[in-house]
Amino acid sequence: MASRLIHSRLSLSRLHVMVGNKNGRLLSTESNKVDEPFKVEEAETVNVPPPPSEKLLVLGGNGFVGSHICREALNRGLSVASLSRSGGSSLHDSWAKNVTWHKGNLLSSESWKEALDGVTSVISCIGGFGSNSYMYKINGTANINAIRAAAEKGVKRFVYISAADFGLANYLLKGYYEGKRAAETELLTKFPYAGVILRPGFIHGTRSVGSIKLPLGVIGSPLEMVLQHAKPLSQIPLVGPLFTPPINVTAVAKVAVRAATDPVFPPGIVDVYGIQRFSQQMSR
After folding, report:
1. How far is CA 127 from CA 7, 42, 180, in A?
2. Interval 78-102 mean pLDDT
3. Where do the TM regions start and end (predicted)?
4. Are 98 and 113 in contact (CB under 8 A)?
5. Is the alpha carbon torsion for 154, 99, 52, 124 positive or negative?
6. How confident is the model at residue 29 (pLDDT cuts 50, 70, 90)?
7. Cα angle value 162/68/145 (rounded, 5°)
């Protein structure tokens, strides 16, 4: 009886379990027997376009802050365009030749929207002073128009260079600040997850006025070094905001470009201390 069981097990171990494929060929499950090699067909090649390159549109790119942003973006390898009422830049720096300069008025609905073609991110430096009604139009209405048009065009990210509160100055420059805050509200509505608002105070650095370069850092740098460590003073009612530290235009430009191109940059409002912190992180 035992010999029959052993014989049966040996017979089963020699048994080839045969299966059929879709072509009717028989394949063996034994590792040392191959009925016929598999034929692997080459996968069909699909022409997938490369990911679009980052294209940045700087509103007011020929101004003090805007020109530094354009240069910073070019240094990062971005395609850069600028839109302003004057169009071309008066700057004589070599990098300016690599910027596409558009002329248009944000208060005119159709004169500038083609500048948004192919744009992936926008940074607005639009702002100005004058009467209250004029300041509201330039700081508020013009930026609101840009934000809405960018959202309609499918722009991914939008960064707005706003301004820090200065207490009593907010009342004296009512149209300026009301316009800024209206634009901020619109941005957070249209770009809740990809809108960034930078609120610097006094921005210092080398400012070009024609062929003359004004070294604003002579005043701004020492004040920034002192006041950046005096944050508690900025909490004093009424006069506290006057202790808001100045910040270098290079720091603002670096953080603005990063906010416009980094998908994980947190949306929302970044005050001057946040701008300093992000800038220092990037410099390490």
Report:
1. 96, 58, 8
2. 87
3. none
4. no
5. negative
6. very low
7. 40
